[in-house]
């Protein structure tokens, strides 16, 4: 993959860096790989919230900037369209779908660009659209997964803290026996 797109696009303008500038950048990922990057449950929940906001911002870019172009002329004349698909997990992805909604997936896009019936002047635009779809879907998926994992870790940290506090501050004043059996005196 060269990373460069042909300049012969006429109808589709991929997102640019300026489109992402209003979204929070990855500064909050700094330190992620340190031994204890988060001070506790609250900071993880904050981080998860930032990831959810970033994910929602990416979904907004997809639905407000990419889809309107994909639904406009001349793409609206094709048998395959870019559409949004909401998931049960709360995310939205971009998918290729045929007009009667009976089929969905990248194979539709592959057939579309391979078909001699697809106007040659749209091939570069369709390629740019597919690249944009792939990257946005990956970004949405990653931010969603990170948020879910952060919340799960926050819950586990809260449970570990509760277990620890019960051990060092027993309620009834009696010592809690250790989890490993001790030998009798």
Task: Describe the structure in your own words.
- The relative contact order is 0.15.
- The chain has a domain of 129 residues.
- The longest helix is centred in the last third of the chain and has 46 residues.
- A two-stranded antiparallel sheet has the order 1-2.
- With 185 residues, it is mostly helical.
What key attributes describe this structure?
single chain; mainly alpha; two-stranded antiparallel sheet; 4 helices; disordered C terminus; DUF3158 family protein; DUF3158
Q: Quick recap of the structure?
A:
This protein has about 180 residues and is mainly alpha-helical. The chain has helices at about 15-20, 40-70, 105-115, 125-170, and strands spanning about 80-85, 90-100.
Question: How do the helices and strands line up, and which of them pair or pack?
Answer:
Elements: H1 17-20, H2 41-71, E1 80-86, E2 92-98, H3 106-114, H4 123-168
Antiparallel strand pairs: 1-2
Helix pairs in contact: 2-4
The low-confidence runs, each spanning 5 or more residues with pLDDT under 50, are 176-185
Instruction: Bin the helical content.
Output: 40-55%
Query: Strand percentage, roughly?
Result: 5-15%
Shape: elongated
Strand order of the largest sheet: 1-2
- Please give the count of helices: 4
SS-based class: mainly alpha
Gyration radius, in Å: 25 Å
> What multimeric state do the chains show?
single chain
Query: Strand count, sense and closure of the main sheet?
Result: 2 strands, antiparallel
């Amino acid at each position: 993959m060269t990373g460069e797109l042909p300049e012969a696009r006429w109808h589709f303008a991929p997102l640019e860096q300026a489109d992402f500038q209003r979204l929070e950048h990855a500064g909050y990922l700094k330190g992620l790989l340190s031994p204890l990057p988060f001070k506790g449950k609250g900071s993880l929940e904050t981080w998860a919230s930032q990831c959810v906001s970033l994910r929602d911002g990416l979904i907004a870019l997809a639905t407000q900037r990419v889809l309107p172009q994909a639904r406009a002329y001349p793409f609206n004349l094709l048998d395959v369209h870019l559409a949004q698909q909401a998931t049960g997990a709360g995310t939205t992805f971009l998918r290729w779908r045929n007009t009667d909604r009976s089929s969905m997936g990248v194979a539709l896009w592959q057939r579309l660009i391979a078909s001699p019936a697809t106007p040659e002047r749209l091939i570069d635009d369709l390629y740019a659209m597919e690249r944009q779809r792939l990257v946005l879907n990956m970004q949405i998926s990653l931010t969603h997964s990170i948020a879910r994992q952060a919340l799960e870790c926050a819950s586990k940290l809260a449970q570990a803290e509760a277990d620890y506090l019960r051990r060092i501050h027993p309620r009834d004043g009696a010592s809690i026996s250790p989890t490993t059996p001790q030998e009798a005196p």
